[in-house]
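# step 3/5: fold
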Amino acid sequence: MSISIPDARTMRGTLHDDDVFRRAIHASSSTTDRFVVVEGPRGSGKSHALASIAAAARADGHGVVELRSSGGDPVIAASSLGQWLSLVQDVEAHRTARTVVLVDDFDALAESARSTLQTVFTGLVHETDVVCVVAVEDRRSVPGWIDLQYVPLRPLDDAAAEDLLRRDRVDLPATRIAMLLRLAEGNPFLLHAVGAAWSSAPAADRSASFPTSYPRLGPTTDAAAHALDGLSDGAREAALVLAVASVEFADDVAWDGQAAPVLDAGLRPLVVEGASGPAFRDPFVRVHLLATTPPAELRRVRSLVAASTGVPERLRVLAEASASPRHDDCLVPRLIALVDESFRLRRPDDAATALLEAARLTSSDTRRARLRARAAAIGAFTGDFGLVDAEAERAALRDERQEPALVGALEFVRALRTGDVRAGKRAVLTALERPDGDDDVLVVALFVLCWLRGDGSWWDEALAITAERDLDPVLRLVEDCLDPDRPDADRDAMYREARISAADAQPWKAVALHVAWTLLDATDPRRELVDAMLRRSGNDGLLGYFTTCREAVTAYQAGRLTTASRAFEQVRERAEQWGAGTLVALAEALQALIHSLQGESEAATEKADSATRWALQHGAPLVARAADHARSSLDVATGRFEEAYARSATRPPAVGRWLENSYGPIELLDAVESAARLRLTDHGVSLVVAAERAQGAQTTPRRSMILKAARAVLDTGADARSLFEEALATVESEVAPFEVARVRLAYGDWLRRSMHSLEARTQFRLAASTFEVLGATRWRTRAEGELRVAGGAGVPSTTAVDPSVELSEQERRVASLAAAGFTNKQIANQLYLSPRTVSGHLYRLFPKLGVTTRAGLRDALLGLGGQQ
C-alpha cells in the first residue's frame, strides 16, 4: 500500500514529519509504522494535517474513513460511512483493506469510547494494511500508545507566520495582518486561505478599519459548523461577541458585569479559559462563526464590544465610524484627531484608515478629496500600493484633478515600480507650483526621485526650488546632508528640531530620513544622529524594508559580506513582493558588488547584467551605476585594468556634489588605480580633482582616506609615502576593513615599485589577511600574488607573532585596552593621551604585531607573553 503526501503540506512539526507519514502508509510499513499519533495544541493545524492526508489518499485511490469527537462520542463523517462498511466487510472476509483511518480530537472522546476504539484500531493495524492516524491535543492522554510513531505539531509563532504570508505574497496593511495573526492562531491553512481572500478584496475593503465580512472556507470549515449546531440564540450571541473581541480588539477588552458574554453549558465545550479570558478551542470554529454572520450583525456586535471597558479610544472611534451611515460630520473631527495619535503610536495604517473613514463621512467634496489623498500618501510610504492605485483610479473615474498629496504618492510608487524618474520629476514640480500644494509629501517624493537619479544637478535644482518654502525640519535635514559647509551652530539647532518633528513618525518623514542616511558616509558623525531618529520611526511595511536595506549596507561597509549578502537577498525578495522593480534591480546591483568582492564572478556578472538590463529599459541611473561599480571592482581585483578604465572613462562625471549612492567612495580608488596602471595619469587626476571639489570644505574620515590614497596612487610629485600613511591613520581598520585593506594593497604596490620590497611585503600581508577574514577571495588572491612578486613567501596566520617584537610600556597598555574593546576615545581618557596619539599607536602596532583588527590584538599579546 502506498500513498503520496504533498511536499507543500501546510503543517509545521519536526524535521522528519513527512518521513513518518510516508513510512506509515508505504506497502512495506511495519505494524508500528502504520499507527501514527499527531500531537499539537489548539491552532497547531492538526485538522488541516488530517485533511491533507485524506486528500492525498483519495487522489491515489485509497479509501478514507474520517472520525471526530462530538460531545465525547465518535462520529463518522457522512462521506466515510460507505468506506467504513466496506472496511468491516473486508476484515470479515479476511481481505486486505486499502484504507486510511483518521480520527480528529481523539483525546476529546469519552473514556469508554477511547478504550473501545483503541482496541478496534489496534486490531485493524495488526491484522490488515489499514493505516490509522489519530490527532490529540496532549499525547499523554492516550495511555498505552507511548511507543508509537508520532508527529508533534506546533502553531506558527508570529515571525514564522509573517514569513509564510510573505512567501504567499499576502499583501495587507499591518493592522489587518495583526488581525489575521489573531484569527489564525498560528494555523498555516487559515493564514493562507483567509490572507489570500482578504488580499484579493478591493483596496477599500483591505484598508477598512474592520473587515466587512470574513471568507467562507468551504469543506474545510464544514466540520466546525457541527460544533455550533444546537447552540441557543444566547449562546451563539455570546460566541460571536467572543469571536469579534478576540480577533478585532485583541487584549484591549475588559468586560464589565453587564457586557461580559455568558458562557452557558452549550458553549463551554467550545471555549477554554486563557490568561486574558475565555478563548475558542478551535480557530476553525471561530472562523466559521464569523464567516456565517451577516455584515450588519457584525457591525452591531462590533459596536457592542467597542463600548466595553478598556477598549482604546482609537478602536472605539473606528468601530463607531464603521457602523455609521454616510455624511456623519460629527465623527469627522474625532477621526482626524485619531490620525496624529496613530502616528505617535507607530500605527500608520490606523491613520490611513481614520482618514478614509473621515472622507467617507464628511459632506464636503473638497475635504473628502484631500483626506483620501492624504490616506493614499500614507499608503505609498508604508507599502500599501494598492490603496494608491485605488485612489488614483477613483480620481480618474470622477475626472477629478489629482490632489498634490496624491501626486506625490503616485510618483513615489511609480518611481519604485518603473524607475521613471523623469516623468515623476515633471509631475512633482508641476504640483509644487500649485498654491494648495502639500509640500512635505511632494518634496519627499522629489528627494526620492533625485536619489534614484544619482545626479548632483538634480539635487541642486531641487534645493533651489525648496529653499524658499516652509518645510518640515526633517526635510531640511536632508538638505543638510547635501551641504557639508553649514555652520555647526545652525546644524545643532536643525537636528534638535528634526528630532522633535520625527517623533510623530509620519511615514514620509521616515523615508526622507532613509534618503538622508544613504547620502552620508559611514564615518560621517551625522549618520549616527539620523540613525537614532530612524530607530524611532517604526518598521511596518515599506519602512521595515528600508530598515533591512540599512542593515545590509551597514554590514557591507563593515566588511561582513556574508551577512550583507543574506540581508540583500531579503531586501530583493521583499521588493519583489511589492512589485517594486527599481528596488529589486538596486538590490541585485548591490548583491553583484558583494559577489564580486567574494570572487564569485558568475554570480556577480549575472546580477549586474540583470540590474543593468532593467536600468536601460526603465531608467533610475543609480541602479546602472551600482551594477557598473560591481563589474569594475571585479575587473580591478583580477587585474583587468583596461576594462575597468573603459567603464570609468565612459561614466558621466559627478556634477556639483559628492553622492554616496549607498556603497561609499571606494569606486574612486578603483577608477584612479586603473588609470595609473595604464599610465593615463591625466584621467586619474581629473577624477581626484572633481572629487575634491565635490566634497566641499568639510569631509569625512573615510572620504579623506580614499582621496589621499588616490592622490598617492597617481604619485604626481606629492609625497606619496606620506599620503599613504596619512590615509591609513585616518580610519581604523574595523570601521572600514575592506577600504583600509585596499589602501594597504595600493600602498604595497607603490612601495614595491619604489624598490622598498621589505615594507611592501608587510602591507601586502596585512591586506591579504584582511581580505581572507572578509571572504574577499579575488582581492586576497591578488594581494598574495603581489606579495610573491615582492619576494614574500606567503601570508602568515593573523595570530602568528614574531617573538622578537618588543613593545614599549605605553604601546602595551594601548594594545591591551584596545584588545579589551575600548574605543580610541576611552583609551585616551584612561591613559591621559589624545585620541590622535592613540590612533597613531594602533596604526604602528597592527603591522608590528601582524594583525589587522583589534580582535587579533589579544592573541598577539598572549603570544608575546603580555598581560591583559
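# step 4/5: annotate
Confidence is low (pLDDT under 50) at residues 1-18.
# step 5/5: archive (pending)
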